[in-house]
Design goal:
The protein has 263 residues and is of the alpha+beta class. It has two domains: 2-124, Nucleic acid-binding proteins (OB fold (Dihydrolipoamide Acetyltransferase, E2P)), CATH 2.40.50; 143-255, no CATH class. Helix content is 30%, strand content 22%. It has six helices and eight strands. A five-stranded antiparallel sheet has the order 3-2-1-4-5. It has a three-stranded antiparallel sheet with strand order 7-6-8. Strand 4 and strand 5 form a beta hairpin. It is elongated. This is DNA repair protein RecO.
């Protein structure tokens, strides 16, 4: 059977003398592996359509145990990213994470469009260190595994199980008498990968990581901002390093193995 789709080239591994095994995030079939015969030859018909981060139109034979690439043509090569070392590094790190988190043969248009939007808008991000934090949060949200940052993850919104002890439950009611659980409250906030996100001061346990109120609030705000508006936020180098550490621990918890970002 011959199939046609569009997809991003996430990974390319040398195979035999002149072939490549490609990992592709396709729009219609999810993450798939393709064999591109002769792709490493100088006169290869595929040309730059198989370069990493390229969005290409792909035609392939879909056999039971083998997907063989027949044709490939470039739709978007994201040349501006590839000519900027720091943006290229961030983009490659991001698809490395994507490749680890996404299972094969599970098509997801939300994730596909997230990648397209990210690569299209990366040029508008000036603070790339903050952008590296944002891409992890936004990708996890697209996958439905983002950390919980609305209230205390250990006890639930309002900590009804222990309302007298929890910082969220004891915070002043918002206008109209309703308690607000949509953002980190002033005071100390802790992060727990095992519990799924933010934990309040009263409910934290040994092994949780303490976050400053500013860092907790900024992580929450990132998800509500477009790529071009991330520069409205500011974190110190130490805060960014801490954010990266807790997010990597959270990712590792989902992978059931320590997550090591690509260099």
């Amino acid at each position: 059977m011959i199939l046609k789709t569009i997809g991003f080239i996430l990974r390319a591994i040398k195979f035999r003398e002149s072939d490549l095994i490609l990992t592709v995030l396709s729009r219609d079939y999810g993450k798939i592996s393709l064999i591109a015969k002769g792709a490493r030859r100088t006169e290869s018909k595929f040309g730059a359509a198989l370069d990493l981060l390229t969005l290409s139109e792909l035609v392939f034979y879909d056999a039971e145990n083998l997907k063989l690439l027949k044709e490939a043509s470039i739709l978007e090569d994201y040349r501006a990213i590839k000519s900027d070392y720091e943006r290229l590094t961030l983009a490659l790190q991001s698809v490395h994470l994507l490749n680890q988190l996404v299972e094969e043969h599970h098509p997801d248009r939300v994730v596909f469009e997230f990648v397209r939007d990210f690569l299209s808008k990366l040029g508008s991000v000036n603070n790339l260190a903050l952008g590296a934090v944002a891409v992890k949060l936004k990708l996890m949200r697209a996958l439905g595994i983002a950390p919980r940052m609305s209230g205390c993850a250990r006890q639930g919104p309002g900590c009804q199980a222990s309302p007298a002890r929890c910082a969220w439950a004891s915070s002043p009611p918002a206008k109209g008498g309703r308690r607000r659980t949509d953002q980190a409250k002033p005071g100390l906030v802790w992060f727990s990968p095992q519990s799924g996100g933010f934990v309040c001061t009263a409910c934290h346990q040994a092994g949780d990581t303490r976050l400053s109120p500013r860092l907790a609030q900024t992580l929450t705000m990132i998800l509500g901002l477009s790529w071009g508006k991330l520069d409205r936020l500011a974190l110190t180098d130490d805060e960014i390093a801490l954010a990266q550490r807790v997010l990597d621990e959270f990712i590792g918890f989902h992978l059931k193995a320590p997550y090591m970002p690509s260099k």
